[in-house]
Structures are given as structure tokens and as C-alpha cells.
Amino acid sequence: MNPEDDHNIKSFFAEMRKKEKQLAIPEFDAMLPQKKSSPMRYIIPIGIAASLIIGFGIWTTTQKTSTPEETLVITIESEETNAETPTESLLTDTMSVFSWQSETDALINDFND
What we know:
mainly alpha, Anti-sigma factor, membrane, transmembrane helix, transmembrane
């Protein structure tokens, strides 16, 4: 590269710098368009919030006014009635927690016995 080419390149970029300094740089806000505020921007969230509040109010009032369910009592009477024991227990006294065996106990093979 000869010195004359080096001088031409330096002068070329010096001229470009001068031209760039003369250009007006726009402000950042001027580049973006102004947003127009729409009333729908506020009406839709307010409507959603209002409907949720009303729905929650209706749901809580229906929960409070519900009637309690009646309990059903079934009494079984047998033909043989004993004066001493009017009701017969379905559970016998011989049953205990320790005498219970699983229905699938026979499936377990214990080879350590």
C-alpha cells in the first residue's frame, strides 16, 4: 500500500465523519408513534373483575342458604325378639384386630418358615 492510497482512505473517512456530524439525530420518542389511549383498554379489565366479584357473591350466597341433608336411619327388626336384648349386634366378641387375615395372604410364599 503506498502512502497516497493511505492518504486517500484517511481523507475519505474524514469527510464521512464531517457529513455525519451535520446530520440531525432524531429523539428516541420521535421515532415511536404516540399511543392512543382507548377506553376499551380500561373497560374490559373492569368488566372482567366486576363479573368475577358478582359471580363470587352469588356462589357464596347459594352456599349459605343450602339446606342440610337429612340423615336416613334404617332399623332392621327380626321376628324373634328377646325382651332382654332388643337389638342384636352384628359384630361378635371373638373378632379382634390381631385375628384378621388378608384375603390374599395365601398368595404370599414365605420360604423362611
